[in-house]
Amino acid sequence: MSERVFSLPRGMKDIDTPEMAKRLWLNKKILGVLEKYGFQIVEPTSIESLETLEAKSGPQIKDEIYYFPDKAGRNLGLRFDLTVGMTRMVAGRYDLPEPVKIAALSGMWRYDEPQFARYRHFYQWDAEIYGTAEIEADAEAIAVGTDILEAIGLRDYEVRVSNRKFTEGVLRQLGITQQEKVEQTIRVIDKSRKISPTMFERELLGTGLDQEVFEKISEVTSLRGSADHVLSSIPEEFSKNEMSSKGREELSRLFDVLNDLGKSEKCILDLSIVRGIGYYDGIVFEAYDKGGEDVGAIFGGGRYDKLAGVYGKREIPATGVAGGIERLMISIERASLFPRLSQSPKVFAAAVDEESRHKILNMVMDLRKNGISCDYDMKKRSLRNQLEYVDSMGIPIALILGPKELEKGLVKVRDMGTHMETEVKTSELIGEVTRKLQ
Amino acid sequence: MSERVFSLPRGMKDIDTPEMAKRLWLNKKILGVLEKYGFQIVEPTSIESLETLEAKSGPQIKDEIYYFPDKAGRNLGLRFDLTVGMTRMVAGRYDLPEPVKIAALSGMWRYDEPQFARYRHFYQWDAEIYGTAEIEADAEAIAVGTDILEAIGLRDYEVRVSNRKFTEGVLRQLGITQQEKVEQTIRVIDKSRKISPTMFERELLGTGLDQEVFEKISEVTSLRGSADHVLSSIPEEFSKNEMSSKGREELSRLFDVLNDLGKSEKCILDLSIVRGIGYYDGIVFEAYDKGGEDVGAIFGGGRYDKLAGVYGKREIPATGVAGGIERLMISIERASLFPRLSQSPKVFAAAVDEESRHKILNMVMDLRKNGISCDYDMKKRSLRNQLEYVDSMGIPIALILGPKELEKGLVKVRDMGTHMETEVKTSELIGEVTRKLQ
Question: Residue B312: CB partners within 8 Å, gap ≥ 6?
Answer without folding.
Answer: A1, A2, B88, B91, B92
